[in-house]
Write a structure and sequence with these properties.
Structural class: alpha+beta
Order of helices and strands: HHHHHEEEEEEEEEEEEE
Oligomer: single chain
Number of helices: 5
Radius of gyration: 31 Å
Mean pLDDT: 80
Low-confidence stretches: 213-217, 236-252
Distance between the termini: 84 Å
Largest sheet: 4 strands, antiparallel
Number of strands: 13
Strand order of the largest sheet: 3-2-5-6
Length: 252
């Protein structure tokens, strides 16, 4: 490489290096904040500081300390992931050996939940966080403690279960996302005072708007009869919730 080319390369890289240095300094500061918090037993503060440091610079030492903070908070599954990632990246044999010893104890910590999902859920949440789960049976590994599991599907009330898990415990949960359909609104705008029936049930005169129980997906049929004519119309309703719960299902 010629001196001129080396100088040009150094000048080109200088802005990138200058920008990287403040970021690395922030990562180090947050790491040191986390280390102090860990030493003082402020584990939530330590985890937060290590997470912030890790988001700037992905360093094995930060992963190791973050795993220790998670372990002290009882967040077993995250502790396992952090220490496994550390073991895969680090060349420090002594600390890797320590991480493996901690991992051997941690692997007995998470509880197992056998989750059975029905009703074609469009979204599944565990403690408010989306999980890529679909209909059928699957196994979840969760930290000990209380958890809320929800299965959602448009047009239905969320199916929800709460579980309290012991260290290394087991539990089974079944959720049907289509188990509780929302009610739908059916509106008929009528001229005159015909005799009206909806699904064979008589409506009183002037009762032009009414909540129709949505007990199953299907059709709702209305008939309006006068002395000279009978008119009917079938509308798709049932378990499908009308948008914003009160959309006009149809006009006569």
């Amino acid at each position: 490489m010629t001196p001129r080319l080396a100088l040009a390369l150094a000048l080109a890289l200088a802005p990138t290096v200058a920008r990287a240095q403040p970021a690395l300094e922030r990562a180090r500061e947050r790491f040191e904040d986390g280390q102090r918090a860990l030493d003082e037993g402020r584990y939530a503060d330590a985890a937060r500081a290590f997470e912030q440091s890790l988001s700037i610079a992905h360093r094995p030492g930060t992963l190791f300390n973050l795993g220790l903070a998670y372990r002290s908070l009882g967040r077993c599954t995250e502790a396992i992931q952090s220490l496994e990632d550390f073991s895969a990246l680090s060349h420090d044999e002594e600390r890797v050996s320590t991480a493996r010893a901690v991992l051997a104890d941690l692997r007995a910590c998470p509880a197992t939940v056998t989750l059975s999902l029905r009703g074609a859920p469009s979204e599944v949440l565990v403690d408010g966080q989306r999980r890529p789960l679909r209909e059928g049976q699957q196994t979840l590994r969760l930290d000990p403690g209380r958890h809320v599991i929800e299965a959602r599907r448009q047009g239905y009330a969320p199916a929800r279960a709460e579980v309290d898990l012991d260290r290394g415990g087991e539990s089974s949960v079944t959720l049907d996302a289509a188990g509780s359909p929302y009610d739908g609104w059916l509106r008929l705008d009528l001229e005159g005072t015909p005799a009206v029936r909806v699904d064979g049930e008589a409506w009183s005169s002037g009762d032009t708007e009414r909540l129709v129980p949505a007990v199953a997906t299907g059709w709702r049929c209305a008939t309006a009869t006068t002395r000279s004519a009978a008119r009917w119309r079938c509308l798709r309703g049932g378990a499908r919730r009308w948008a914003s719960a009160r959309r006009r299902a149809g006009a006569w």
